[in-house]
Design brief:
Length: about 300
């Protein structure tokens, strides 16, 4: 019969190859977020340093409290020493046992033994704000870079604020107009330090009107989740690929997986984006999100 003549025999090499390929594709869809290997605290910037300090207090707590050894990495900051001393004083006020200010100002610094030792001995690592490209251009592929990944794999908390937040993922936003409609060439992206995969982070989100650039980033690859974090707000990401929102404002998640249409590949310079069918979730303190299922849930749900 004509229909049967086109069937692939189940014992053929092609059939086995196609089944294996489909299994890989399904596993990638089902297990989104499996490559989250440790604990991350990703902060949207301008976190409270004078009042209750809820976010930074959580950093100290998860790093070991009075026994914490926190390495403050200032690679993103232009005024690194001042910024480092400021965070060191806050962490000390909040009860951290030991703080090491790690100033990495040149590429050569990222290969220094004493800095590697500081990271290896830390129970918590904190990236300050500044310019995320400074982080990746100074650390990418260096001994410090590998020490960070080793610490992360061993369960050490890694936290970052503002630029330090954006650099966490494998791809990061490094520029773009936050107060305009999403248009072609309106954003620029670059590789991050790769602690979190298949997610792109934006910070100072509501305060700087950055929804447009996150929509454009997701439209370019709908498999990637967009996470926009407001100031004085953070996500605490766990190894089970769920995160909880901490802080005074909100987190916006843009999911383009089920998008029906976008013109992103056809745009001319300055032409605005079409994106149909994307989902947007807004989460406040206590709400949670599962990166595997791509669904939010509240702390009251089982």
């Amino acid at each position: 019969m004509r229909g049967e003549s086109n069937r692939i025999p189940p014992d053929s090499g092609i059939f086995v190859f196609l089944c294996a390929k489909m299994a890989i594709i399904l596993s990638e869809v089902i297990f989104l977020g499996e490559k989250v290997r440790g604990h991350l605290m990703i902060i949207g910037g301008a976190e409270d340093k004078d009042g209750e300090c809820i976010i930074l207090k959580k950093v100290v707590e998860l790093s070991g409290g009075a026994k914490a050894r926190i390495a403050v990495i200032t690679a993103a900051a232009k005024d690194a020493r001042r910024v480092g001393e400021s965070y060191g004083a806050v962490f000390k006020k909040l009860g951290a046992g030991d703080i090491d200010i790690v100033n990495i100002e040149t590429r050569k610094d990222a290969f220094r033994g004493e800095i590697i030792d500081s990271i290896a001995d830390s129970t918590g690592i904190f990236f300050t704000g500044g310019d995320q490209l400074r982080i990746t251009s100074l650390l990418g592929g260096s001994l410090v870079y590998h020490a960070l990944h080793a610490a992360y794999d061993n369960g050490v908390l890694i936290a970052g604020t503002s630029a330090g937040a954006s650099a966490m993922s494998d791809i990061m936003l490094v520029g773009g107009d936050g107060d305009q409609a999403p248009k072609k060439n309106a954003i620029s992206m670059a590789p991050g330090i790769g602690l979190l995969e298949e997610v792109v982070i934006d910070q100072h989100f509501a305060q700087r009107g950055r929804i447009g650039r996150l929509l454009l980033a997701v439209a370019q690859n709908p498999y990637v989740l967009g996470v926009g974090i407001d100031e004085d707000t953070a996500v605490l990401l766990n190894p089970d690929a769920t995160f909880a929102v901490v802080g005074s404002q909100t987190v916006t998640v843009v999911d383009g997986m089920d998008a029906e249409y976008t013109n992103v590949s056809e745009l001319s310079p300055g032409e605005p984006l079409n994106l149909f069918g994307a989902r947007i979730h807004v989460l406040s303190s206590g709400a949670r999100f599962n990166l595997k299922t791509r669904k939010p849930f509240s702390k009251f749900e089982v």
